[in-house]
Amino acid sequence: ADHTYRIDFIPYVNHSIDRIIHAPPDILLNELESNSEFQNASKTFLNQLQNAVQRRVINIPSLCRQCKQFADSILRPLNGCQHAKLAILFSGGIDSTVLASLVDRVLPINEPIDLLNVAFFSAVSAPPADRQTGLQALTELNPERHWNFVKIDINLNELQHYRESIIKNVIYPCSTVLDDSIGSALWFAARGNGILHQDNVP
Q1: Lowest CB count within 10 Å: 20, 33, 97, 128, which one?
Q2: In whole angstroms, what is the distance from residue 101 CA to residue 82 CA?
Q3: Which domain holds residue 52?
Q4: Per the domain annotation, does 21 fall within a domain?
Q5: CB-based contact 136:172 (threshold 8 Å)
Q6: pTM to 2 decimals?
Q7: How far apart (Å, rounded) are the C-alpha atoms in residues 81 and 66?
């Protein structure tokens, strides 16, 4: 089978948008909404993103690992289980929020989705920024979907221990602070240890 994909050309929108790039947000938004060329480019870009996400979630199994282990077919759900089979590393930033929204568009509405929010705690009493932005972004997602917001709290001692013993040896490249921070968040999220946010508990 041919596994190559065509990449559509998305034209760069210039002229009037370039002239108002420093305009107030409301004026800029009105200009963009009335610009047909920009709207067409936006729709094309959104479709490309949605298609890319759909390719990755379309074959998600109907049963989670736990339900698959039922040897007795009577205990095994016939039409899939109601446990989450997909998780998103969710900081509440623009990238993870857009990704969650796109997954919401292509996954059946009865499928729950885990949002794994990794927060690195220091001696400061205030919650880390990623926890605050994650909870805020959670309120902006589709309320018809069951979202499992999983809080993964990591203190500095735990971070330093696993960074030195494991994480620094399994991420590549590991040459910048960003490599280290993203790699650490991914590792702790993949470990799967966390607490379900209280609003998710019946």
Answers
A1: 33
A2: 20
A3: 7-59
A4: yes
A5: no
A6: 0.78
A7: 10
Give the total number of structural domains in the chain: 2
At 73, is the pLDDT very low, low, confident or very high (cuts 50, 70, 90)? Answer: low
Q: Tell me: the pLDDT tens digits for 52-61?
A: 999 999 888 8
List own/partner pairs for 7-16 with CB under 8 A and 24 or more apart.
8/44, 8/48, 10/41, 10/44, 10/45, 11/37, 11/41, 13/37, 13/38, 13/41
Question: Is the residue at 45 inside a domain?
Answer: yes
Residues 188 and 101 in one domain: yes
Question: How far apart are the C-alpha atoms of 35 and 125, rounded to whole Å?
Answer: 47
Whether 50 and 99 map to the same domain: the answer is: no
List strands edge to edge, sheet with 147-155. 87-89, 113-121, 147-155, 195-196
Residues 42 and 99 in one domain: no
